[in-house]
């Protein structure tokens, strides 16, 4: 890692150019990863609607433990990027090392707890024995490899925080391609569209393909770090030691963001329970929608991560105006991209649903869902862009406040009224997402204008 002068490249020249220099590789990497998720759901949809429902239910439960990754990962962005922006090489390395070590330890604990509680959690959502069995079949191996998944996230975050977005892109593209190749081989007795025999492992094969690809790409990314030829440098001997000062910050700085993620995932569980009251077809449609929205969301993730890195480095140099301009630019492009995506989905919802599943009842459920929820991503474009000042500065309370108000204050009460009191059709569930997103956007904008993030340093 070099000195201060070379750390200024993101704080000079064109903000748009700097933003997309980081965001474009990040977008591409995440979109490849989400493209795999879409392909994975297409293959699962070839098994049955029950398989889609089982995977959807497990995935909703699984991402609840991802709150722990959100807590530590969000903290690491501000710690690493601000240390790097100051030109403090040893502090930057220490933050990366502790993120790797501490997050892996937390993942081991989370895996144990999820092993214990998986059956009752799945049973909460379904009494269909086939859906329950498929959820377990898909889930156990994913849980076992949770520490590797968390560590892989850390490697990618470390590279982005020092301004190297290309290596994470390569890592994620390799993972996606490997997943796409392995999926049909592992899942089916005969690989679709060929006469080549497969392993016939069903949904377990889909999960196995995922954990193999994550493991391989973690090894590649960690190999990049150990090569000592990148901006990310660590002292391997320090990986076996906990640094209480850094670890406390990894928890405390990201705690509001983690609480928001927990709240968001808990809301997802509650919403899934509401949706399950409309039947397996509705759950399957929502599972497909979740993958599609996740794919559409990736450009926003790229812009947010890039913006957070530049904001963190800007605040490390006390350049507040550069941080503001970066966030506004990220929000602007996020809105434009999501407008294009919304128009496309509104015009072709039937064709999009039929890519994943041919069962007409599921397709019928999915068409209004896509048309109603997708425009809410435009509001998410504003939130993710402006929100980069919070994750970059380490002031993450607005994420929690906006989520609590939008989801628990607006969406969940509305769902109780819609489902239990008025017994309205399922599309009113989809409308609740729009109202929640609008509320969260307003709260985030208010927090940005208050300016408390401007004085935050970690």
3D architecture notes:
This protein is mostly helical. The protein has helices at residues 15-47, 49-86, 89-125, 129-144, 146-161, 166-187, 202-226, 244-252, 255-276, 280-316, 320-347, 349-356, 360-373, 376-386, 388-393, 397-421, 427-450. α13 runs parallel beside α17 (427-450) and α16 packs antiparallel against α17 (427-450).
Helix/strand layout:
Blueprint: H1 15-47, H2 49-86, H3 89-125, H4 129-144, H5 146-161, H6 166-187, H7 202-226, H8 244-252, H9 255-276, H10 280-316, H11 320-347, H12 349-356, H13 360-373, H14 376-386, H15 388-393, H16 397-421, H17 427-450
Quick recap:
The chain has 17 helices and no strands. It is mostly helical.
Q: DSSP strand (E) fraction? A: under 5%
- What is the β-strand count? 0
Q: Outline the low-pLDDT stretches.
A: 1-7
N-to-C SSE series? HHHHHHHHHHHHHHHHH
Helix content: over 70%
Instruction: Indicate how many domains the architecture comprises.
Output: 1
Terminal CA distance reads: 20 Å
The average pLDDT value, as a whole number, equals 84
| Major sheet size, sense and barrel closure | none
Radius of gyration, taken over Cα atoms and rounded to an integer in Å: 21 Å
How many helical elements?
17
Function: Multidrug efflux pump.
Family: Belongs to the multi antimicrobial extrusion (MATE) (TC 2.A.66.1) family.
InterPro entries: MATE_fam, MATE_MdtK, MdtK-like
Transmembrane segments: 19-36, 42-65, 100-118, 138-156, 168-187, 199-226, 266-286, 292-312, 333-357, 369-390, 397-421, 427-448
């Amino acid at each position: 890692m070099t000195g201060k002068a070379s750390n200024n490249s993101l704080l000079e020249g064109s903000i748009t150019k700097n933003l997309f220099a980081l965001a474009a590789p990040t977008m591409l990497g995440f979109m490849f990863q989400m493209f795999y998720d879409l392909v994975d759901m297409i293959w699962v949809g070839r098994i049955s609607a029950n398989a889609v429902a089982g995977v959807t239910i497990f995935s909703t439960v699984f991402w609840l433990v991802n709150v722990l990754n959100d807590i530590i990962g969000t903290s690491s962005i501000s710690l690493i990027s601000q240390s790097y922006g100051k030109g403090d090489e040893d502090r930057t390395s220490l933050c990366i090392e502790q993120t790797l070590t501490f997050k892996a330890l937390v993942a081991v604990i989370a895996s144990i707890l999820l092993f214990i509680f998986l059956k009752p959690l799945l049973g909460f959502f379904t009494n269909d024995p086939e859906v329950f069995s498929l959820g377990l079949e898909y889930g156990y191996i994913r849980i076992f490899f949770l520490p590797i998944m968390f560590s892989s996230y850390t490697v990618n975050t470390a590279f982005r925080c020092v301004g190297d977005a290309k290596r994470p892109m390569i890592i994620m593209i390799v993972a996606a391609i490997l997943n796409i190749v392995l999926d049909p081989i592992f899942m089916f007795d005969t690989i679709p569209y060929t006469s080549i025999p497969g392993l016939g492992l069903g949904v377990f094969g889909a999960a196995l393909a995922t954990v193999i690809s994550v493991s391989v790409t973690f090894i590649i990314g960690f190999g990049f770090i150990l090569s000592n030829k990148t901006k990310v440098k660590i002292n391997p001997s320090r990986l076996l030691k906990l640094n209480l000062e850094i670890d406390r910050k990894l928890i405390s700085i990201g705690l509001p963001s983690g609480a928001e993620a927990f709240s968001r995932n808990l809301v997802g569980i509650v919403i899934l329970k509401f949706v399950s009251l409309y039947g397996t077809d509705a759950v399957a449609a929502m599972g497909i929608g979740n993958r599609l929205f996740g794919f559409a969301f990736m450009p926003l993730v790229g812009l947010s991560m890039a913006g957070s890195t530049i904001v963190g480095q800007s605040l490390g140099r006390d350049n507040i105006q550069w941080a503001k301009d970066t966030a506004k630019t990220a929000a602007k492009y996020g809105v434009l991209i999501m407008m294009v995506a919304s128009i496309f989905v509104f015009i072709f919802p039937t064709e999009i649903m039929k890519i994943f599943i041919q069962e007409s009842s599921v397709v019928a459920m999915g068409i209004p869902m896509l048309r109603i929820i997708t425009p809410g991503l435009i509001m998410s474009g504003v939130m993710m862009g402006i929100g980069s000042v919070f994750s970059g500065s380490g002031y993450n309370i607005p994420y929690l406040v906006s989520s609590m108000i939008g989801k628990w204050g607006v969406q969940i009460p509305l769902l109780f009224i819609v489902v239990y009191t008025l017994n309205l059709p399922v599309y009113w569930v989809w409308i609740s997402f729009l109202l929640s997103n609008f509320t969260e956007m307003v709260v985030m904008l208010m927090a940005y204008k208050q300016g408390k993030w401007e004085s935050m340093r970690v």
